[in-house]
Design brief:
The structure holds 2 protein chains of 2 kinds. Chain A is 18% helix and 33% strand. Chain A contains 5 helices and 16 strands. Chain A starts with a strand and ends in a 9-residue tail after the last strand. Chain B is an alpha/beta fold. Chain B starts with 8 loop residues before the first strand and ends in a 27-residue tail after the last helix. Classes of the chains: A alpha/beta, B alpha/beta. Bound molecules: flavin-adenine dinucleotide (FAD), flavin mononucleotide and FE2/S2 (inorganic) cluster.
């Protein structure tokens, strides 16, 4: 696995997916990146000490020119500054961080993304395009901003199964309802999204025999496994989302404990 | 990086190749996870806070960004001293850098047991007593806030430890200098100035405290001038070496701390925003010595006070 380092990269493309949601292509200056779906980068689009910390983002795609795609939603100051980046601008990156999803070869894979959580799964879909059969699911709430976002995903991956809570686009219902229907024909689920989605999946996991891997989010200070700020409690004791994760077996996680 | 002999120093009889140390609680304990080059120019590093028994750490949000800084409430998550010595320390030993054991304890018995286990496995390594951890509701804080308790526990440690003894003080006390003097009087070989500054954060989206413990420790550039003042005052008050810890991000920060009286400097949160921060500081400090024609980093200590406080300080001369 490639060792983590801090390096600078250039924004070589920037595309609006929907209002407030962007995909940018970042090309590292010196490094050739070797990354797996599920790994992520810490990014700062500023060189000042304020904001002080990098922000974590999943890789949503990798391109032949060596650049990586980051798809993100503007939610605060850090993402705002990242969204203000124009082509040619330099950003700082730290990574590759964490471990990716386990090797799925020979399996029929379901990729279940809740809203922005679909980002790492887009990379997975692309990465295994020619080797395994993957089924992409996207679940969104009823908020209007997710409609254009869903359309952008559908345009890229027309066979995406889409669920919206209020039925404004795709089928009405949650992604977990959708999952229940297709389990028989599949071997493994990879999921990323808000924690509520994992709780719902956890409740029915006992009835499902297939393994579920989830990619978690935590506030992070270092991203290199040093600060223990991103801990999650598991059956094997506390783990670091940044360095031991962000991908975990769903049944390993103890949500209710500190 | 070119090793520079002028950067070497002696603290309490022990030689270090650089005055720059990695502070406790910011660095992975598995050397397989260390990024290339990140330990260049590092004189040694402090372990994360170790306790007698394993600790799972605090629930809820543990880190929160502030202007030019970060607050943390980790809660001393660690596998306990025995597991640490059996597993992680075996890895660290191989790294070829001095390891300073950062210890937290709630009772004097706990401290004695900790020292006993360390002695048995690692020998007389340097230890850093964390008498200041502000995160755990029962432990830490009380030692620094009560000068008598502080004297008792440092005296006890001194009597039972042949290796280097650093005492890492808390800035969250009414008279900092008093605690530094108490540590000196009780046998500390050096004082580390200082741990994180207690603060509070409210999450306005929930209108609730961010941290389950309500208060948390602030670090990073935001605290630099505050800690610099403590370093200045402590240098004026004590004779033992002062090791600065608080907001050091650049070589200029490190040089300021040293000029204000620090013999050595710990780098913590700076690594969050630049993993090569220490390596860069080393280069900067080394060229400062070169440019100013200063023979040793020890000669820089306290230089801003306008006089060398005590030219016979053997402990600060490099060998
Ligand atoms: C491993 C990982 C991968 C991620 N991948 C993506 C991605 O591909 N696309 C994307 O849009 N976002 C992703 N995130 C979330 C992203 O990191 C946060 O949205 C971002 O840090 C917010 O920064 P800010 O300064 O804009 O917001 P802030 O002002 O810091 O916070 C605004 C809001 O963002 C939330 N937030 C802050 N930090 C985090 C965090 N580390 N994780 C989750 N929520 C946070 C806060 O709860 C708050 O509601 C990922 C997070 C992690 C941990
Ligand atoms: C995430 C985190 C964890 C820390 N854990 C410890 C600890 O276990 N023991 C300790 O003595 N200090 C601990 N500290 C304090 C640092 O070692 C350092 O003294 C402090 O952060 C100030 O320096 P800085 O501004 O360079 O970070 C921790 C700091 C941070 C940010
Ligand atoms: S963010 Fe520091 S250990 Fe994960």
């Amino acid at each position: 696995m490639q060792r983590l380092s801090d390096f600078s990269a250039t924004v070589i493309e920037k595309e609006s997916m929907a209002p407030g949601i962007w995909t940018i292509k970042l090309k590292p200056e010196k490094l050739r990146l070797r990354i797996l779906p599920g790994q992520f980068f810490m990014i700062r689009a500023w060189s000042s000490k304020d904001p002080f910390l990098f922000r974590p983002f999943a890789v949503s795609g990798k391109n032949p020119d060596g650049s990586v795609d980051i798809s993100f939603k503007v939610v605060g100051r850090g993402t705002e500054l990242l969204a203000e980046c124009e082509r040619g601008q330099k950003v700082l990156m730290r990574g590759p961080c964490g471990n990716g999803f386990p090797n799925p070869l020979g399996k029929r894979l379901v990729l279940a993304g809740g809203a922005m959580g679909i980002a790492p799964l887009l990379f997975a879909r692309h990465y295994y395009e020619n080797s395994i059969r993957t089924l992409l699911l996207l679940g969104i709430t009823g908020e209007p901003e997710w409609e254009p976002f869903s359309k952008a995903i559908l345009q890229k991956f027309p066979d995406t199964l889409l669920f919206s809570e209020n039925g404004m686009i795709g089928r009405k219902g949650t992604i977990v309802d959708g999952l229940a229907e297709i389990l028989d024909e599949n071997d493994e689920i990879w999921a990323c999204g808000p924690e509520g989605m994992f709780h719902a999946m956890g409740k029915i996991e006992e009835r499902w025999t297939l393994p579920i891997w989830v990619s978690l989010e935590r506030r992070m200070a270092c991203g290199y496994g040093g600060c223990l700020g991103c801990a999650v409690q598991t059956r094997e004791g506390p783990k670091r989302v940044c360095a031991d994760g962000p991908v975990f077996r769903l049944k390993e996680i103890l949500w209710d404990e500190p | 990086m070119n090793p520079d002999k002028r950067m070497a120093l002696n603290i309490g009889g022990l030689e270090f190749e650089s005055p720059l140390f990695i502070a406790s609680g910011v660095w992975p304990m598995d050397s397989a996870e260390w990024p290339d080059g990140a330990l260049n120019g590092v004189g040694g590093f402090c372990t994360k806070g170790l306790t007698l028994r394993p600790k799972r750490g605090n629930p809820g949000i543990r880190v929160w960004e502030t202007p030019c800084g970060v607050m943390n409430s980790i809660g001393l998550q660690n596998p306990g001293i025995k597991a640490f010595l059996e597993q992680e320390y075996r890895q660290l030993e191989k790294a070829g850098k001095p390891v300073i054991f950062n210890l937290s304890f709630e009772t004097e018995e706990e401290l004695l047991l900790l020292l006993g286990y360390i002695m048995d496995t690692a020998g007389n390594v340097p230890v850093e007593l964390n008498v200041s951890c502000p995160n755990v509701s029962k432990g830490g804080l009380s030692w620094a806030q009560d000068v008598n308790a502080l004297e008792r526990v440092v005296t006890l440690a001194k009597r039972n430890w042949k290796g280097l003894l650093w005492v890492k003080l808390s800035p969250n006390v009414s008279s900092f200098t008093e605690t530094a003097l108490a540590a000196e009087k009780s046998g500390a070989d050096a004082v580390v100035v200082a741990n994180t500054w207690l603060g509070t954060a409210i999450d306005v989206s929930r209108l609730e405290p961010v941290f389950d413990n309500i208060h948390a420790g602030l670090s990073g550039p935001a605290v630099f001038p505050l800690t610099l003042r403590l370093v200045w005052e402590t240098y004026a008050a004590v004779k033992i070496p002062v090791i600065a810890s608080g907001g050091v991000c650049t070589w200029q920060d490190a040089a300021s701390m040293i000029a204000a009286g620090a013999s050595a400097v710990q780098v913590g949160s700076a690594l969050f925003s630049d993993i090569l921060a220490t390596a860069k500081m080393y280069e900067g400090l080394s060229s400062l010595l070169e440019k100013r024609n200063i023979g040793s980093v020890a000669d820089l200590t306290g230089i801003a006070h306008g006089r060398r406080r005590d030219t016979n300080r053997e402990d600060l001369r490099h060998g």
